[in-house]
Amino acid sequence: MGKSLLQFTKKGIYCSQAKVYIDPWRPVDKAIVTHAHADHSRKGMKHYLTHHYSIPIMKARLGKNIVTQGLHYGEEITINEVKFSLHPAGHVVGSAQVRVEYNGEVWVVSGDYKTQDDGLSTPFEPVKCHTFITECTFGLPVFLWQPQHHVISSIEEWWQNNQSQNRCSLISAYSLGKAQRILYNLAPLGPIYVHSSVDQMNKAIEESGIRLKNKYQPITKHLSKADFEKALIISPGTTGDNWTKLLGKFNTAACSGWMQLRGMKRRQNLDTGFVLSDHADWQGLNQAIKCTTAENIICTHGYSDIFSAWLREQGLNAHTEQTLFQGEE
Amino acid sequence: MKSFTELILKIDSNRKTTAKIQALVDFFDEADDDDKLWTIALFTHRRPKRSVTTAKLREWATELAGIPLWLFEESYHIVGDLAETIAMLVPQTTEIPPIGLSEWIAKIIALKEESEENQKSKVQTYWQGMSRTERFVFNKILTGGFRIGVSRKILTKALAQTLDQEEAIIAHRLMGDWQPDNTTFKKLLIEDHQHDSDAKPYPFYLTYALDKELSEIGLEVEWLAERKWDGIRAQVIIRNQNIYIWSRGEELITDKFPELQALTDLIDDCVLDGELMAFKDGHPLSFHQLQTRIGRKTLSQKLLSEVPVILMAYDVLEYKGKDIRSTPLSARRKILENIIEKAHYFALRLSEAVPFTAWKELMREKSKSRALHCEGLMLKKKDSLYHVGRVKGDWWKWKVEPYTIDAVLTYAMSGHGRRANLYTDYTFGLWENNELVTFAKAYSGLTDQEILQVDQFVKNNSLQKFGPVRSVQPQMVFEIAFEGIAYSKRHKSGVAVRFPRIKRIRLDKKIEEANTLDDLKAMIE
């Protein structure tokens, strides 16, 4: 048997035929990047190939001088007889699965994905393949997401409730992904302020012509308590920063798939947790895998041992590989 | 149960005490008396007897979830709470018409008499007819592990507000061995209970550890010093020729101490606060020896003569039917001394004052603690009242430094509740013949930051996985602190230590530098 089309090496997932790495975690010459989150898009690569939407975000995070090449979803590029194309992963704006084809054999690297349509990211599209490399951040049957509009209305309700008590609402959400998801979907109930890291990501996404619907302003030290009255503040974290002193009284909440577990919420000493994730839930993972019609499944970050044992029981040829991907915090 | 579930949701989604109290008050204002009574019962750890085993619950839930049992178990290890795991895995298919909490509890109690087949079909029907949070609350009642972030203090405050009553009175009334099936909300909290309240204890006055210099708490003449006895804190009630002994955990433990029975004939009606201790030939025995008596269902004559128990009394809260908690300590002690002198009985002793005129003399006295089987000293202000609960400033405990030893982390287990999905429960070993022998488990002592650090270490250095337990590569050394030490046949190491906890992580030590089992044994006097 010859070498696998893709191998798990010390530097990352590698295609030796094309001499290309996918989401490598050490510096290499040529990298295909599924999306712009830090554990998938790292610095030090000589050349980055990624979706057009990801380029401004990566430049904002990794520096203006990185060398990039953009692809549209479905557009194909051939490197030493290996065909590569990107397909929507529904995870964040610009996120893609990487389809790799050589000699009639097809592999798909999912990166991170969710099957729920968040309204903003291009929705997930299953891609038929022989071998599917899947994340399994939430690969346990206890993780089942509610429809997004339910979660959004409970955030709105929470915000209004805080407004009625004259408290501001401080919500923690990833600066790339959930922050924009909230901005895009929430009803305009009051002023919205964002942490500078969220502001930076918003600007990078807007560069691609995407509108976030809600108006927002970055937090600066010139703001006062009066400005924050009835406001919603979106920030990657809710503690440890000096600017929270500007706010007056506030309630905290976090948006994360982990909020499904009571223990997690209590550990973070939060008032409220909203179960909102940019990763697939148990059903999403199982459905996505079914739709690929793949016989071989490689499970990477998350509950990979448990999830692959489950897939083997379903008659699939599944195993796990170690990566440095991190899933959701 | 809808409104009770909503109450739980409200309590669970706010970490502020005032908000929790408000949620309870709102609930008490609306709920009917039976539901109120059961709510109070659940929050004071009185729950219906378990009617089905958790093994069965797992099996029935797994069946409805359409997953293999192993996957259920894996999910449970990660969620860290059985009631929650079942709530998450069982899908809702119908909606049961709403009924109150007490009706639900009646259903749960009725399950006990059913055949297994009926139990299964009923529980499964209930589960499928509930929302996820309702299912969670229902399971919590069913499995009997109701801990939901409502302390007794919060409950007491809420009831005091609802009934416009003094907190101390509510606290007093909530005590005792009442059960929801032998009382009513009105009887428990509203009606006058002079006659059936003989057994009722007062809330204990709990102390804080001394957190400042002695010179900062005041003048020597204002203070009384006593030994901090290493026994079981207890309240002994003598009323109308009956004796009731309550532990600090509010358990009625009268039967375990027949030595004290004779007090009913020897002293006037009174309520005493003190320490139950194993005591022989004029000296205290170790706590370990006292423990050999506590666990037994029946007490043999042999055990009674080998390990006699006495009350080392240090306070009197009620005398001849009069509540004297607001009399100054110095006056209360005079009364106490009289009671003890008049009784003249081996099993009732006075916790003598440790005489001193200057603070520095107390330092010397404190250093004698270990030899006297004491935990340190107690400092009590002579004019102090007997407070309710934990109140700072009038009484201080001043404990001796714990024993410490350096041990190696050998196993780790993931925690529950707030610590779910994190490796937080650790097992430690000491060296013997080039092997690490387990000597203690410890759960506390690390900061949240350190827990994350150790959790990462465990995840990266696991050798084997046994369900929630992982054996880890011996590599990390911890300084373990503990209170008491004694030989024990029940422990693999041959030694039992009391209240082991982590003092600090010793990153500066290699595992070869950890202590040996012989070092530990050398600490036994």
Question: What is the strand and helix layout of this fold?
Answer:
The complex is a heterodimer of chains A (329) and B (525).
Chain A: E1 7-8, E2 13-15, E3 20-22, E4 30-32, E5 47-51, H1 54-62, E6 68-71, E7 76-79, E8 82-88, E9 96-102, E10 105-109, E11 131-136, H2 148-164, E12 168-172, H3 178-185, E13 192-194, H4 196-206, E14 217-218, E15 232-235, E16 250-255, H5 262-267, E17 272-274, H6 282-292, E18 296-302, H7 304-313, E19 317-320
Parallel strand pairs in A: 3-4, 4-5, 5-6, 10-11, 11-18, 12-15, 12-16, 13-14, 13-15, 16-17, 18-19
Antiparallel strand pairs in A: 1-2, 2-3, 7-8, 8-9, 9-10
Helix pairs in contact in A: 1-4
Chain B: H1 2-12, H2 17-30, H3 33-43, H4 54-65, H5 69-79, H6 82-89, H7 101-111, H8 116-128, H9 132-143, H10 152-163, H11 167-174, H12 185-190, E1 205-206, E2 208-209, H13 214-217, E3 223-229, E4 232-239, E5 242-247, H14 263-266, E6 270-280, E7 283-284, H15 287-294, H16 301-306, E8 309-319, E9 322-323, H17 329-343, E10 348-350, H18 359-367, E11 374-381, E12 389-390, E13 395-399, E14 403-414, E15 423-432, E16 435-442, H19 448-460, E17 462-466, E18 469-472, E19 477-482, E20 485-487, E21 495-497, E22 501-505, H20 517-521
Parallel strand pairs in B: 1-12, 2-13, 8-10
Antiparallel strand pairs in B: 3-11, 4-5, 4-6, 6-7, 6-8, 8-9, 11-13, 14-15, 14-18, 14-19, 15-16, 17-18, 19-22, 20-21
Helix pairs in contact in B: 1-2, 2-10, 3-7, 5-6, 6-9, 10-11
Whole-Å distance between the termini of chain A?
39 Å
**Greatest interface by residues involved:** A-B, 20 and 29 residues
Please give the CATH architecture of the largest domain in chain B: 2-Layer Sandwich
CATH homologous superfamily assignment of the largest domain in chain B: DNA ligase/mRNA capping enzyme
Query: Secondary-structure element order of chain A, as H and E?
Result: EEEEEHEEEEEEHEHEHEEEHEHEHE
CATH class label of the largest domain in chain B: Alpha Beta
